[in-house]
Amino acid sequence: MSGYIIYHYNILDQDRIEELGPLSKPIIAKYGGEIVVGSGVRALEGEPYSNMVIYQFNSMDAARAFYESKEVQQLSKLRHSITEGVVVFVPGFSLTQSQSDE
Q1: Where is the DUF1330 domain (predicted)?
Q2: How far are the Cα atoms of 11, 17, 56 from residue 14, in angstroms, in the given order?
Q3: pLDDT tens by residue, 62-77
C-alpha cells in the first residue's frame, strides 16, 4: 500500500524557497517517490499553512526510509531555515487491502 509524506508549511524566506526543489528531486527519485501535489492551499475551514507538498511512495517503509535518510535530514536543516510547518506520514487506502497488510 502506498505511503505519503505531507509537508504543510509557510514560506519564511521567499528569496530562497526555490533552492529546495532542485536539491530534493534527486533524493525523492532515489527512494522511488514522486510529488503528487505541490501548491498553495485554499482553506475551506480553519487556518492552514499556505503551501503543501505531498510525496507518494510505494509503501510506508519507502516513505519512512526517504524521510529518515541522511540526505533528507541534511536537507531538513536548510528547509527549516526557509519554511515553518508540519510533516506527517499518511498510509494509502485501499478497499481491497487492509492497512495491516503492509
Answers
A1: 2-93
A2: 6, 5, 25
A3: 999 999 999 999 999 9
